[in-house]
Amino acid sequence: MRYAEGVQILDTPLRDVKLVQPRRFGDDRGWFAEVFNTSTFGASALPDNFVQDNHSFSRKGVLRGLHYQLGKPQGKLVRCLSGHIWDVAVDLRRDSPDFGKYAGFDLKPMTDTGDLQMLWIPEGFGHGFLVLSETAEVLYKTTNLYHPAGERSIRWDDATLAIDWPLAALGGLTPVVSAKDEAAVLFTAAELPPVA
């Protein structure tokens, strides 16, 4: 765990993936939080140069992922604005001790203790999420622009990765994926990022 002015950085089971908790200031009027600041992020060893913001709305049972880009890899700072998602990061860096491992995170607008929480997923990771609430809005900042030619996807239900998605929370629903994600490749056949 590290602290920078106004933000707390928490380690996760995957090296380099971090939970980021901005400080929240509240009174009887409501609350305020500075969720991104270039100098604060730079001082905490997180990236301070994001070039694109993506905002998605999804219904319960929608599963997006597992996505990554070649050529112009994207680091992502993910925040759930409404609802509840289970967010997954998979280490695709072949020179990493965590190669092929994943971690899942419950993301909501606020944690049960009232903390704001974002997830930092560095370049070289696959990313996906499953919507557990009736609807969810997700906002994520990226370190690189969308690069269609480099877009890749690994199957969400890949047996090698064996991700334990919380499907029971869907109450019998089958995850809904896009046609593109339905056609995603298996981990063993995936074109992975080059070794740095």
Automatic annotation (TrEMBL):
Q: Which reaction does it catalyse?
A: dTDP-4-dehydro-6-deoxy-alpha-D-glucose = dTDP-4-dehydro-beta-L-rhamnose
Protein keywords: Isomerase
Task: Output the InterPro entries linked to this UniProt entry.
Answer: RmlC-like (IPR000888), RmlC-like_jellyroll (IPR014710), RmlC_Cupin_sf (IPR011051)
EC number of the protein: 5.1.3.13
Participates in a stacking interaction with the thymidine ring of dTDP-4-oxo-6-deoxyglucose (site feature) positions = 146
Q: What SUPFAM superfamilies does the record tag this protein with? A: RmlC-like cupins
The pathway to which it is assigned is:
Carbohydrate biosynthesis; dTDP-L-rhamnose biosynthesis
Which cellular component appears as one GO term in the record? cytosol
Pfam families named among the record's database cross-references: dTDP_sugar_isom (PF00908)
Provide the GO MF annotations for this entry.
dTDP-4-dehydrorhamnose 3,5-epimerase activity
Active site: which residues?
67 (proton acceptor), 140 (proton donor)
Membrane-spanning intervals of the chain: none
GO BP annotations of the record are:
dTDP-rhamnose biosynthetic process; polysaccharide biosynthetic process
Q: What does this protein do?
A: Catalyzes the epimerization of the C3' and C5'positions of dTDP-6-deoxy-D-xylo-4-hexulose, forming dTDP-6-deoxy-L-lyxo-4-hexulose.
Question: Could you say which protein family the record assigns here?
Answer: Belongs to the dTDP-4-dehydrorhamnose 3,5-epimerase family.
Self-association and partners:
Homodimer.
What is the official name of this protein in its record? dTDP-4-dehydrorhamnose 3,5-epimerase
